[in-house]
Structures are given as structure tokens and as C-alpha cells.
Prior knowledge:
Largest sheet: 5 strands, mixed
Number of helices: 5
Helix content: 25-40%
Amino acid sequence: MTVYADTPRWPRHGTLWGHLISDASLAELHERAARAGLPPRAFDLDHYDWPLGAREQLEAVGVRFVADGELTRILIASGLRIRLRDRPDARARRSAEHAAALGLEVVPRDLIHGMIGHVDPLPGAESAAPGAFRLTQDRPGGPPRVESHDEQGRRAALALLQMLDSLARGRGEEGFVGQVLEDGTSA
């Protein structure tokens, strides 16, 4: 089993980003990403996004660097790839599984219970429905990060966090840790 990375070339947040994949195992990918110091939230269904500044750490943990086309071929051959057109359905399945595990009856557009992975970004104000929000809770009882374009979204995020905290405590956890994206149409 080997972990591979391509050359960062996608601009975002003031740096360039690349992809990190495994040829055989998501568990191996998570372990190697952690050893390289990548945050668990950098995982996106079948790969990690990694910033240009992390190259030395990736090299230090034995990541093999390849060209973009080769990285794609390796990911396809691994059986781990989630095609772009299949990503919305994969996110919906993950959200439904995490909601069911928590006992949440209404499934948000995108939900992660735990630290591994991230939900889609909040749509821009011009395309977001009223009440849309993105909520991140990285530790129980810690300060939540709420992104919204209106007060309705902020209130909806905090109300959902209260419910998620209660459900998580009912499962023996200290509180909810995870992320939620709600587009304002199903909240």
C-alpha cells in the first residue's frame, strides 16, 4: 500500500492545494495524513486536500509524488474513487448514515458527525436561500463556527447545534462534534 500526492495547483485560501490518495485503503490514508500533520477536516470522501506548505511533511512520512493524470489513474484503480457526478449522492448517503446514528430525524443537506471530513462550502449570498448556514463544532462545548448570510441562518444553526448536542449526549458523548451544511430549503 502506498500514499500518493500530486502537485498543488488549485488556488484557495491564499495558497495552492493538491490531493493526497491511497492506492488501497482509506484507513492507511487517514493514518498517513495524520502523521504528516494534515487536519482531519481536510478529508473529502476519497482524498485529502493538502496545502503547498505541507510538502516537506508529506515527504517525511513517505508519500510518493506523481503527476495529476497518474494520481487519477491510481485512485480509479484503487476502487476508492468517488466520481465527481457521484459526489452529491455519496454526501447524501454519508449524511443520512450520520443522522441515523445520532437519531436525527430530518437529514440536513450535508452532515458529518466526527472530525474526519468536511461538508460543502456555504453557497454565496446571491445563490443561498434564506436560512442557509454552515456550522462547525470541533469540540464539545467549544465555540461553534457559524457561517450564514442572514440572522435566520445563524438562529437555525444554533438551534440545530442544541439538538445535535442533546442527541450526542444521549449516546454517551460529551456533545456534538462535526459539521453541517443546510441550504435553507429543507431546514
